[in-house]
Write a structure and sequence with these properties.
7 helices, mainly alpha, about 170 residues
Length: about 170
């Protein structure tokens, strides 16, 4: 019981607003805290794709605090809410495999200096900027953001096939 009260007081501290805080930071903080509250409803497998808008309203009604939107404005929090720990581990696993692929291909980038490598480098940088974890973002499941991410990923993966064509992009 005393542990439960301490835990509740820590949660309440997170919800307290500092008046010196920037209004944008306040709203992002509220959105993230509301998102984490919705995640607690089903931690393992998540609440389902595009569920934040519905579960968020329940949190507002039950706890009388939070901030709602159609999505939590962060890819990783959205994946955590919608697909749970299992989905987040799968996505991070795929991302890790992708990063290993990039690290192996980076050796090829150093050796050659041509238009093809420049395009690959531009795609890699764009992808990194798009999936940077601490930025506000659109919904990964309902906007063109996922299309953009998939497009960049396929450009990067197709790099090996392009290397086989000797005349492509050579200056």
């Amino acid at each position: 019981t005393s542990k439960k009260k301490k835990k509740e007081s820590k949660v309440e501290e997170k919800w307290q607003q500092d008046e010196s805080e920037d209004p944008q930071i306040k709203s992002n903080k509220k959105m993230a805290l509301t998102a984490l509250e919705t995640w607690k409803l089903n931690k393992t497998f998540g609440n389902g794709i595009k569920s934040f808008r519905f579960e968020c309203r329940k949190i507002l009604i039950e706890q009388k605090r939070g901030l709602c939107s159609n999505h939590p404005h962060n890819y990783y929090i959205e994946i955590l809410i919608d697909l749970g720990i299992v989905g987040l581990v799968l996505v991070i696993g795929l991302a890790s495999i992708f990063i290993l692929f990039l690290l192996r291909k980076y050796k090829v980038l150093k050796k050659e200096d041509n238009l093809q490598n420049l395009l690959l480098l531009a795609a890699i940088i764009s992808l990194i900027l798009e999936v940077f974890p601490f930025k506000s973002s659109g919904s990964i499941f309902s906007t063109n953001n996922s299309t953009y991410i998939i497009l960049l990923s396929t450009i990067i993966f197709s790099h090996k096939k392009l290397l086989e064509k000797k005349n492509f992009g050579q200056i």
